Amino acid sequence: MEKTTITKDELNNLSKDMIVMLYLQLHESFQLISEQNTTIQKQNEQMLHQVESMKEQISILTQTRFGRKSEKFLPTEGQLSFDLENLCILNEAESLTENGIPEELDMETVLVRKRKPRSKGKRDINLKDIETIVVPHERTEKELSEHFPKGWHYLPDEIYKELKYVPAHFEVLEHHIKVYAGNHDTGGILRAEVPLRLLSHSILTPELAGAIINAKYVNAVPLNRLSEEFLRNDVNIPRQDMAGWMIRIYQYYLGPV
């Protein structure tokens, strides 16, 4: 094999070329690192600016929420004021009498709040549409004769009113329909006239339907609670039955309307 010989000058030139390449590579690397460093510094400055802005916002919100208020309400006369500046929270009596105990007002100068006079006849107006039942209270003839041996006569009655509440109660209407038949098989069979029923083959009456509709759709009472309320009056009406009644009433009467 032939040996390749490199002279000293060639070796020097080769070394110079390698040094130049390394220098160029390092220069490019330094330039890239410098650009990255510049980008990181800009990002860091933006983050610091955002942090400062958030600190300022938090400070403003804290001052607004927990700081001293610029608006002050005038205290109501005679009412304890939570004034931290004048320290009148627990020593109100001392702060009000620091200039001496004032003399009390005369009885004639004390102002008494007058109530608004009640309008007359308001109770009668509120009770005018309610059925009134007169409850007489009388003495027996024997008591009057013993008390007035020389006779007696009537004076105008003393009258007062009370409002009595009668809870809802149930009544079972058992209809007995008379059935007639002619003698000697003449005329067939004749039944007495009966009022039309709200729902055929049902115990539902218009009054009961109205009560359920009012409780369910006006007062928003659930059917289950209404069923429990009926049960307290010893009447067992399941909520399924009431739901069926409402549906049938809608189908027969309200739907067509």
Element layout with pairings:
Blueprint: H1 8-66, H2 92-96, H3 122-126, H4 141-147, E1 179-181, E2 189-191, H5 206-218, H6 223-232, H7 239-254
Antiparallel strand pairs: 1-2
Number of helices: 7
How much helicity do the residues have? 40-55%
Q: Report mean pLDDT, rounded to a whole number.
A: 79
Inertia-based shape: elongated
Low-confidence stretches: none
Strand content: under 5%
Describe this structure in words.
This protein is mostly helical and 257 residues long. The chain has 7 helices and 2 strands, in the order H-H-H-H-E-E-H-H-H. A hairpin with a 7-residue loop joins strand 1 and strand 2. The protein starts with 7 loop residues before the first helix and ends with a helix.
In a few lines, what is going on in this structure?
The chain has 257 residues and is mainly α. It has helices at residues 8-66, 92-96, 122-126, 141-147, 206-218, 223-232, 239-254; strands at 179-181, 189-191. It is 45% helix and 2% strand.
Can you give keywords for this protein?
mainly alpha; 7 helices; elongated; single chain
